[in-house]
Write the structure tokens for this entry.
Amino acid sequence: MRSPLTDQGTMLNLRFSFADAHNRLSVGGWSRQVTQRELPAAATLAGVNMRLNPGSSREMHWHKEAEWAYMLSGSARVTSVDAQGRTYIDDIEEGDGWNFPSGIPHSIQALGDGCEFLLVFDNGGFSENSTFLVSDWLAHTPKDIIAANFGVSVEDLAGLPPTSATSSPRPCRPRSTPSAGPRLTGRCPTRSPTGCGGRSRCAPRAARSASWIRARFQRLRPSRRCWWK
């Protein structure tokens, strides 16, 4: 197969499939990523495709990159905490998404039959293998300091895991009422009236914690010529 005459061989690769990426397997699921290392043209974006088995979780972790996500299939429970100590819990279903600003600690636990989702980060050099995990902090912090922080004895910390990984399946407790922290996830809470061409909905400013993001979801019916004004 011959390249066209206009191809000088200097164009950066503009396509890299998740199917060609390394798949990291664990008891709790799998993950694969495409970053600037695999796709040199992606200097400002990195993508991760992750699957969690039923009951498995991506433990509490954080990173300097902002995170946007879209649930491809299944459902999960997402937990986060901000710098003011406010916590948030929400159940995410297929078609839902979330956004975590830089540095927000968060965790993801699969519900039902498990889940698969797409993560996008605002830095092409991001690596899913180098996020800061809460188990990393616990493993490298003296036990007496951890005990003093949580108000327990050092003996109570004997069962802390020495390493970190996607957890094995475990039961998921019923969701408690979340605190009044900022809404970072879920469906757009408002919807415009359904028109002849479909429907549209968007999140009002009061419901968005990220002032630099404006979101709208639209569903269009085929072969319609009506427009929203």
In short: Residues 177-194, 202-214, 223-229 have pLDDT under 50 and may be disordered. Residues 31 and 50 are 4 Å apart (CA to CA). The chain has two domains: 18-157, 190-220. The first strand starts at residue 23 and ends at 26.
